[in-house]
Amino acid sequence: MLPSSASPTAVRWELSLLAALPALALLTAQCAWLPHFVSDDAFISLRYAERLLAGDGLTWTDGERVEGYSNLLWVLAVAALHGALHDGLGVDLVAAARLLGFGCGAAALVALACAGAPRDLPSLARAALAPLLVASAQATLGWTQAGLEGPLVLLLLAFGFAGLAAAHDRFGPPAQWPTATLLRLGAPFALACWTRPDAPLWVFVAGLALAAGARSLRVALALGAPAALAVAAQLAFRLAYYGDTVPNTAHVKAEFDPAAWPAGFAYVGSAIAAHPGTFAAAALAAVALWRAPARRPLLGALLLPVLAWLLYLASVGGDHFPCRRLLHGALAPRAVLVAVAARRDGPLAGCVAVAALLGAGANVAVARTDAQSHELRAETWEWQGRELGRALAAAFPTERPLLAVDAAGALPFYSGLPCLDLLGLCDRAIATTPLPAWLDTMLPGTPKPPGHLRGNGRYVLDRAPDLFVFGPPPGRPLPVFASGAEAEDDARFRDGYRLVQLDLGVRPLVGGAQAAITAPMWVRLDGRAGVVRSAAEVAIPAWLFGGFRLRAPIVQRYQPPTPEGAAAAGAQLAALVPWLEQRQALAVPGADGRLELRLCGGDAALEVALPTGRWRPLIEPADAAVAVAIEGCASDANGVATVPTAGEHVVRLRRTSPGDTPTAVRRVRLARVGD
Asked: DSSP letter at 292?
């Protein structure tokens, strides 16, 4: 027994911790079942945190400030935890985000157990049910350690809605709640507004429900005042720091297109089906509270925000992430609803308790068998992005090329390079570009995932990225989304870029897994990673030799091609496929991380613009068994070639050693020879 001198508050929290133990054990088991998944979008937030700690401010890349995150409090919390633990314990930013996610999830379970108001063994058992419903949910399984803000939203909403239930227990109807109490109860909701930009919906609807029950606008105003101040403060910061009124992500994702409703309702339906126990127990709990007229205002404050949230999700077309990510925080009010209903006396409360216990089992069964859960369990491309990012960082330590990416998370984070986000999450120009008119005439079967439809190929090529990686890492050889598809139609891309295959060999991923990684990457010939020109020489990175030149667009899914265009695309595709399969000329990291050419076939060529004059070809390293020649140009006995006309000339490398051993070359220099 607890000592009689223990205060009621102390007893409640100690018993709440005991009541939460089964759920904490289940949460640990859930995280162990999905031990390695970290969302690529989480690395966007981590890049902001990393640059903040490095003194570069809340920025994603050099240049224009853009609010490419939508979870300010999470970014700051991860940065603070990393700063506190890194020096002493060596905790990196990824580990800090995962640790914070688990900590927030665990604390939320304790808060939900507290909502069950345990006072003795029978009430202890019933108080354990609401946390179990949350710990068993698929959204919890998928997103507790995924690196995004979901666990923090869950924690804040758990505190917020549990606080409303506690105030109802203490003061009775909302009309009797002191204004100071209402202001205090609004604090967690205010912090939630700094964690997700759509969080004001929770406190707005809850406040209106309480105000309607109390017939007093004071209740809604006092409860919502902290959130209103938080939103106003962040808006002032956003205007001053970023020069915008909404997060940049809102320009990309918040369409509210009537055409999105069918997909949105399908998403909500699948989310309900994926959490059968939670929704069933909450529905039964709502019936139980409705039968108690004194608790109907509390019922409205717990139930109506959930309904409003589901309607909001339907209006925006749902979410493309697996495991119903946006249901994570919404678990809290439903769990509080179950906690309040289960602790009452009577057969209906007993039915709620039984439904919650069985529902937790049903949740676990769905969470462990649903295809989306296994999709996340098998997902490793973020870690391939880590390996590619590290390779690019080592390859270009001083050149700092501009890297254009579709996946703006792991690859930019680990590369540390200046980056351009082709989808616009972290780029205002792309984010504010109107949706292309050809979206309405896209060919059947073309995917249209939310948040992936913005693009501006002309703007991208005006920025002249030095490297393109299309699609998720390690990349795809052809454009996937709008910016890349539009860029491919631009002659600047076809003439100025070459596709190379970066072979990283077998690399470690996570959990002991390994993978052979080959990254198709487009490189700008005259960019910071490409040819270096001076009056005395033209220095060509050897790994550019053998690169594929695109002479006609292949990706024409966004508009019906003309017969001529289709024929040209077919011819290009017929040339690209064997080039990818033969792998005769590969870019590989050298011993120091710098890239070099591994020439596996007989020769490799590159078209290079050369001025007139006499040029002596030189190979680095000098002992490489490779000869170099400028085609169509006469050479004297010393190997000096004469370029009679300025323009594009084919420079060809040819192996001089027999056998199948690959030849490694780092650089080809064309040194000008005086007349």
From this structure: S
pLDDT digits (tens, 9 = 90+) for 629-648: 998 888 887 888 988 898 89
Here the tokens at position 643 are: 């370029």
Length of the chain: 675
pLDDT at 2 over 60: no
Residue type, 17: L
Let me know: does 650 contact 630? Beta carbons within 8 Å: yes
Cβ burial 450-481 (10 Å sphere, 16+ → b, else e)? bbbbbbbbebbbeeebbbbbbbbbbbebbbbb
DSSP string, 411-454: HHHHH---EEETTSTT-HHHHTSPPPGGGGGPPTT----TT---
Q: Look up residue 119 and give its DSSP letter.
A: -
**Measured CA distances, 529 to 295, 401, 484 (Å):** 67, 6, 19
Among the listed residues 359, 361, 364, the one whose alpha carbon sits nearest the alpha carbon of residue 335: 359
Q: What letter does residue 540 receive in the DSSP assignment?
A: E
Quick check: helix, strand or coil at residue 81?
helix
Mean pLDDT calculated for residue range 589-598:
95
Tokens of residue 226, six digits:
């902290």
Angle between helices 371-378 and 347-369 (to 10 degrees): 50
Q: Report the C-alpha gap between 306 and 278 in whole angstroms.
A: 12
Per-residue pLDDT at 587:
96
Q: What is the model's pLDDT at position 564?
A: 82
Structure tokens at 180: 């100071």
Q: How many CB atoms lie within 10 A of CB 180?
A: 9
Instruction: Tell me if residue 244 falls in helix, strand or coil.
Output: coil
Q: Which residue has the higher pLDDT, 150 or 642?
A: 150
Report the run of H or E that residue 541 belongs to, with start and end. strand 537-541
Query: Mean pLDDT throughout 97-103?
Result: 98
Residue from 114, 200, 100 nearest 152 by CA: 100
